[in-house]
Every structure is written in structure tokens, then in C-alpha cells.
Design goal:
- By secondary structure, the chain is α+β, with helices and mostly antiparallel strands.
- The chain contains 9 helices and 5 strands; from the N terminus they run αββαβααααααββα.
- A 5-stranded mixed beta sheet has the order 1-3-2-4-5.
- The longest helix has about 30 residues.
């Protein structure tokens, strides 16, 4: 074989090896990231979205919720139970669907509490006290402040931070993504990007188990 042919063959071999390696790497990454490797994953998960669980969890559970929603309140203990039961295997991502009159107000308080590292405690508190402050016949969002005193929070800072304009931008973006995904009520769940097939706690856990067993 002539020298020039050997050089061309060597270049082709290097290119082929590089292409195969790149393909293998992409497949490895896709397998590692699972649902998060999908091109449309940003519709489900934004960089600012509150989350619980490891980034490399096999299952990404996305919940569109509203702190003023009674069904979200009812579902909350079951979601917590799932997160405890499948600890380390499931990542919970919260998105907002502010369908009620005082939802944005409550979400702003919740996000301000996140800046103090008290997101999940505050979400729990909002759900537990919801019958008082979120009563649909006589809503009293001002009562939230009374309940917040039970947490170790800087209330004055929350009252200042809750007016951060990015919170309203996040609520708007979540509403836009929710609309694109067909979210019409709360809570709405997606398990690795797949909608909950039937609205029940049992079905939610079943679909999570199915994804974990793949």
C-alpha cells in the first residue's frame, strides 16, 4: 500500500473510532440521565424548579400543584410517603399551576421561605393550614403569617423577599409550560414525562414502580 493510502486509511480509522466513541458516550449519557435526556424535558423541569431527591434518580416525578388547591392538600401525604418509600430512586420536581385567587400570594411566600432553606416545611404548613387561610367561601391569606411563626423563619425578610419579580416570572413560565403539557387541574403528575393514567394514589405508585423496574 502506498504511503498516502496508509495515511488516508489511518485518518478514516481515527474518524470512525471517534464517531463510535461519541455515539457510545451519548447512549451512556442518555441511559444515565433517563427522562432528563429527552429534548423536551425543560417543559417539565426548569432550572429554578424546587426539587427533592437525587439528580440521577431513575424516576423524575413532576407535580404541578397549587398551595390553595384542596386536592393537592389531600395528595400531599401520599407524595411524601412515596418519597420516603423510594428514597434515592425518585426525584420530585414541583411546578406551579396558580389556578386560585390567592395562589400567587402563597407561592411568593413559599419561594421567599425557600431562600431561608425552609421550602418543604413551609409547603407542609401551607397545606395543613389551608382550610383556614384558603377557605373558598372566606379566604384569609393574611392568616398565613400567623402560621409561619411556628417555623424558624425570618418573617420580615419573607415579607421583603416575596416581592422578588422573578417569582411571578416563574409562575408565568410554569403556567405556560403547564398549558403546553395540557395541565388543566391540580395536582397533575408526570412520571418520567408520562401523565398519570388514572387519578389515584395507587396508580401514581404503580406507574413509579413500573418505571423503576425498567
Amino acid at each position: 500500500m502506498q504511503k498516502s493510502h496508509k495515511i488516508i486509511a489511518a485518518i478514516i480509522t481515527v474518524i470512525a473510532v471517534f464517531a463510535i466513541s461519541a455515539t457510545f458516550y451519548k447512549k451512556q449519557q442518555a441511559a444515565k440521565l433517563g427522562f432528563m435526556a429527552n429534548e423536551n424535558h425543560k417543559l417539565f423541569v426548569r432550572d429554578y424548579s424546587p426539587s427533592m431527591g437525587p439528580d440521577n434518580a431513575k424516576v423524575v416525578l413532576v407535580e404541578f400543584l397549587d398551595p390553595e388547591c384542596e386536592s393537592c392538600r389531600a395528595f400531599s401525604p401520599y407524595v411524601k410517603e412515596i418519597m420516603n418509600k423510594y428514597e434515592g430512586k425518585v426525584k420530585l420536581v414541583v411546578r406551579y399551576a396558580a389556578f386560585h385567587k390567592n395562589s400567587a400570594y402563597a407561592i411568593s411566600i413559599l419561594e421567599a421561605a425557600r431562600k431561608q432553606g425552609k421550602y418543604w416545611e413551609t409547603l407542609d404548613l401551607l397545606f395543613k393550614s389551608q382550610p383556614a387561610w384558603g377557605n373558598h367561601h372566606n379566604p384569609r391569606p393574611d392568616l398565613i403569617w400567623n402560621y409561619l411563626t411556628t417555623l424558624d423563619l425570618d418573617i420580615d425578610k419573607i415579607k421583603s423577599d416575596m416581592h422578588d419579580p422573578k417569582f411571578m416570572e416563574w409562575i408565568r413560565q410554569d403556567a405556560e409550560d403547564g398549558k403546553a403539557l395540557g395541565v388543566r387541574g391540580t395536582p397533575t403528575f408526570f412520571i418520567n414525562g408520562k401523565p398519570l393514567e388514572r387519578f389515584s394514589y395507587q396508580q401514581l405508585e404503580l406507574q413509579i414502580r413500573e418505571e423503576l423496574n425498567k
